[in-house]
Amino acid sequence: MTQQPEQPARQCCLLLAVVGNPIAHSKSPQIHKAFGEQLGIDVDYRKTLAEIGAFASCVAELRANGARGCNVTIPFKQDAFEYCDRLSERAAQAGAVNTLIFDTEVCRGDNTDGFGLVHDLVNNLHVAIGGRRILVLGAGGATRGVLAPLLAQGPQSLHVANRTAGKARTLIELFADAGNLSSSGLADIPERDFDLIINATAASLGQSLPPLPDTLLRNGGAVYDLVYAEAGTPFLHWGEQAGASLAADGLGMLVEQAAESFFLWTGRRPRTAEVLEAMRARPVK
Ligand code: ATR
Q1: Whose alpha carbon is nearest atom 23 of ligand 1?
Q2: What is the mean pLDDT of residues 165-172?
Q3: Is 163 helix (H, G, I), strand (E, B) or coil?
Q4: Is residue 169 within 8 Å of residue 105, measured between CB atoms?
Q5: What's this model's pTM, rounded to 2 decimal places?
Q6: Most informative mutation of 98, 160, 162 for ligand 1 (most atoms within 8 A of CB)
Q7: What share of the chain in percent tops pLDDT 90?
Q8: pLDDT level of residue 211 (50, 70, 90 thresholds)
Q9: Which of 79-88, 128-137, 173-182, 275-284 has the lowest mean pLDDT?
Q10: Mutate to test the pocket of ligand 1, among 21, 201, 205 (most ligand atoms within 8 A of CB)
């Protein structure tokens, strides 16, 4: 019997995905491809459109295909929270999951959004949070996801203002033990001269701006929009006119949350600065 030559080992790549609806706009594949190239890991990261109501079956298919995990974006972060067998502490605090990790039998859920925001503010943009007066606009899932990591930095105070004041009040009650928190509607924000104002409303997605008094920001303070937009957002333009020394969109947060997800899947931490720089220089459409 002739000996069969040994087959070359099958090229094995790391299968990952982002699940959302819509999904065409997502920059995550470019970011994770860059991480993989940097670390010598062959990454196949796919945009996956899930129909509303079909999140679980979409994830089941990814698992059956051998994926290591996936990111989860609008509108499925709550579905992902319910889908997981185990939750990290930060996912439990956020009440939402943006990263699924598929172990053999078990699916773990984490939330890297707040980590991404704080890392971008503190490490990339050098905006201090500790000891500062912070205002967060909006009281939806995005705000819930970032409150605990912001409070962990020890701000002097953190005020949440929302179009629907009752939602802001309900939200801060969840974090009452974690810091000096207050809430209001958008029209009756009691303090002025905030050091940092973060827009976590969905208003920027529609390129609109909640009405804001221009005395809200301390002269030389910082504004940050969780939305990423090449040409800026109405909120960032408002901040510049209100005297901000720094106005940043959410691209840095996107890259930083992606790096933390990549670490959860691979145990390897990519360098983010060069990826962020490349994306700013050559925006991916
Ligand atoms: P997400 O998960 O992105 O936070 P969400 O849970 O639907 O989405 O929350 C959207 C947030 O944006 C809410 O705080 C919403 O205010 P309401 O709670 O009053 O609905 C806020 N928002 C949406 N459009 C807005 C607008 N045009 N002006 C001000 N706030 C807006």
Answers
A1: 202
A2: 98
A3: coil
A4: no
A5: 0.92
A6: 162
A7: 85
A8: confident
A9: 275-284
A10: 201
Q: How far apart are CA 268 and CA 265, in angstroms?
A: 8
Choosing from 27, 47, 77, 285, the catalytic residue is 77
Binning the chain into helix, strand and coil, the percentages to the nearest 5 are 40, 20, 40
Q: Tell the residue nearest (CA) to atom 16 of ligand 1.
A: 163
Whole-angstrom distance, CA of residue 75 vs CA of residue 284: 22
Ligand 1 in reach of 167 Cβ (< 6 A): yes
- The 10s digit of each residue's pLDDT in 73-120 is 999 999 999 999 999 999 999 999 999 999 989 999 999 999 999 999
Q: Which domains does the chain have, with CATH numbers?
A: 14-111+254-281 (3.40.50.10860), 114-249 (3.40.50.720)
Regarding the beta carbon of 145 and ligand 1, being less than 6 Å apart is answered: no
Written as six digits, the tokens of 154 are 């020890």
**Would residue 33 show up in a list of annotated catalytic residues for this protein?**
no
Rounded Cα gap, residues 249 and 232, in angstroms: 7
